[in-house]
Amino acid sequence: MHDRATPADPLAAHDTVLVLDNLVKRFGSTTAVDGVNLEVLRGGFYGIVGPNGAGKTTTLSMITGLLRPDEGIVKVNGRDVWKDPAAAKRSIGVLPDKLRLFDRLTGRQLLHYAGSLRGLNGRTVRERSEELAEAFGLQDALGRLVSDYSAGMTKKVALAASMIHSPRLLVLDEPFEAVDPVSADTVTDILLKYVAHGGTVLLSSHSMGMIERVCDGVAIIVHGVVLSSGTVDAVRNGSTLEDRFLELAGSHKAVEGMEWLLSSLD
Amino acid sequence: MVAQLFRLRLAFLGNILTGTPRRVLGVVAGLVVAFVLVAIVCSRVLELRSATPMVARSDLVVSGSIIVFAFVVVPLILQRTDAVDPRRFSLFGIAPRPLALGLAVSSLVALPVVALILFALSSVVAWSRSPLETVCAVVGGALAVATCVLVGRLSSAFASLVLSTRRAREVAGVIGVFVLVLLAPAVVLALSLNWGGAAASWSESVSSTLGYTPLGAAWALPAAAAIDDPGAAFLSFVVAVLTVAVLWLAWRTLVSFMVTSTQRDDPSAEPAGLGWFGRFPSTPAGAIAARSLTYWSRDPRYFVPLIIVPIVPILMAIPLLLVSFPPTWYALIPLPVMCLFLGFSVHNDVALDNSAIWLHVVSGKRGIADRVGRMAPVLLLGLPLIGIGSVVTVFLSGNHAALPSVLGASTCLLFTIMGLGSLISARFPYGATRPGDSPFTQPQSIGSTSAIVQGVVVLGTLALSAPSIVFAILAETTAADDLHWASLEWGVGVGVLVLVLGALSGGAVFNRRGPELLQASLRS
């Protein structure tokens, strides 16, 4: 299950699924993403970690065509996402964070909608919807409105919808947020199987343990800059990923002040 | 064989009076109403005995043709399971020929055919002015009844054979309703063409044309004899006999095909639990149309604002009628106004999706599919509104000549505002009530964009519709009927052009500015 396809020649161009070249995004006077460079190889399971507000979601949105970068190039399978969006978007599956779904549809309708928008024919969409629902344990919920789903189930149905057109690259923003451990395990298994068959996953997460366990590559982003990237072993450099992350992100300062809170405990 | 099928049919007839008392009451009431209607029609036909042959011909040929047409169309639209479907007899091993004959003859006791026979008998009485006419009327009536019976059987069998899947039935039903809805103004339009003094000659020319078609030939036979036109009588006779012969062959062939074929419904072809999605093709545009319709019926943010559509004309009527604006003129106004308000509902459709629009953005260039799909609910409501509304409008105003103008202005307003809305909503989205909020709440941030955009859409629509509206007003004030037609031509021309261009340009803008649309929705 956990066997991963390791590319024979990592430098061969056709094995690079995703290239970010000096990506920059500014919001007014703040620079959210400040020259991010990244390469993800085919069959890679790549994680992006960073503190809140580090620019993870901004970076992922620019990869998926949801947010126009101010500078830089995003290439997926050699196609520029911002110059040739139709071709590039065909091979990307997207799970955004904090964006709404068409939640007045039932789960079945939402999957059907996502598949039809991707140009799949009706029979294919129905077959794949059933299989995805079974894989994600959503069979019993397909007839209910997505707005009535729990947060974790919503995440799962969105994840299923992102895969329905069999993309080459899955870009998942916080796929495990609000997902219970059992479901997270199921999702991890599905993703590992996908990667083992040549798919590529790029995800962001807060869970260092999860990243350490399943990812083979990782990038630590702080203040819109990649501080460290490479294989998980190279990045953690002998310690745990969490310690390395805290070290790079600047460990938390000693709590000063707030005596009123501490004194009330006496 | 024939006798057995006759008894079966009579048993069916008797059984309609069984069931719960409520049901029996309903059936009896329906029968009484139907009987009264048939009696009225037949008495009108009997009165034609004293009318001139030309008048009798026009009335009987036209009404007879309508009856034949009804026998073709009604089974296709009702699509009820056919109690005497030939396939039900396939296991009894009856030869197709006697079965076809038996089924056709036994339907003489079906209620619609009974009413038809009463009509035919009345027409025989109406034509019984001389022995020759009486003989012709009997022959013609018999041919007409045979035509109706056969065509009705064929139509029912066809409906159950070809329209056997749910999908096909729904599509056929929708098309049937649309055809009827769009046919209504067409018929009134045709009637209004020679509305002036030429009415008599017009109905005469229609009835003489119908007399050589399968629809009216049998009814025209005695009429042609009555006006001493043996050539026409012979031609009508030949057409009527050929019609019956061809129908009989078709019916026999269809029966032998149906009792030997083993076609069955394919239940797997019927998608379950997909709602509108199962009824539209699984293309991007079809899916977006299905999603729009689902939201229109499920989300109060869509259907609550629609309440304004029928209310506005009432509100407008009060001040106008107070200043003694002529009510027959006012009757022309509500339909165009309703079209304007209905079409306005797509002008900010993207904003109602809020950030869920990301799904359209990541799916590639779906701009045109998005624009077209969102128009589906408006067209589905708007086209029947125009079709039925225009006929109601001209009847209320008692002004048949104005029908082209009413059609032109309404179509122009609906299509133009949809076309403009398609472009504007992609280029200048502004905040809308968020999903899940009450439809009566104001959006968080509207700013001045909202007012400007709404103003531009409405004023632009009025400007583009001006030719059609101005021609309509001129036609009404100067009583120049040509201008009514100019209004229709300009209205439909401009409307279709703006709709198509709006969808194309809106789609292009959507493709280019998808990410910006998403950002705009996140701010609201």
Structure characterization notes:
The complex is a heterodimer of chains A (266) and B (524). Chain A has helices at 56-64, 85-90, 107-117, 122-135, 151-163, 181-196, 208-214, 232-236, 241-249, 259-263, and strands spanning 16-27, 30-41, 45-49, 71-76, 79-80, 92-95, 169-173, 200-204, 217-222, 225-231. In chain A, helix 3 runs parallel beside helix 5 (151-163). In chain A, the strands form 2 sheets. A 6-stranded mixed β-sheet of chain A has the order 6-7-8-3-9-10, with helices on both faces. In chain A, strands 2-1-4-5 form a 4-stranded antiparallel β-sheet. In chain A, 48% of the residues are buried. Chain A is globular and about 60 Å long. Chain A has 266 residues and is of the alpha/beta class. Chain B is globular. Chain B starts with a helix and ends with a helix. Chain B is 77% helix and 0% strand. Mean pLDDT of chain B is 83; it is low at 194-199 and 266-270. Chain B has helices at residues 2-15, 21-47, 53-78, 96-106, 111-127, 131-162, 166-193, 199-210, 217-226, 230-260, 276-279, 284-298, 300-306, 308-322, 327-330, 334-344, 349-353, 358-362, 367-397, 403-427, 447-478, 481-523.
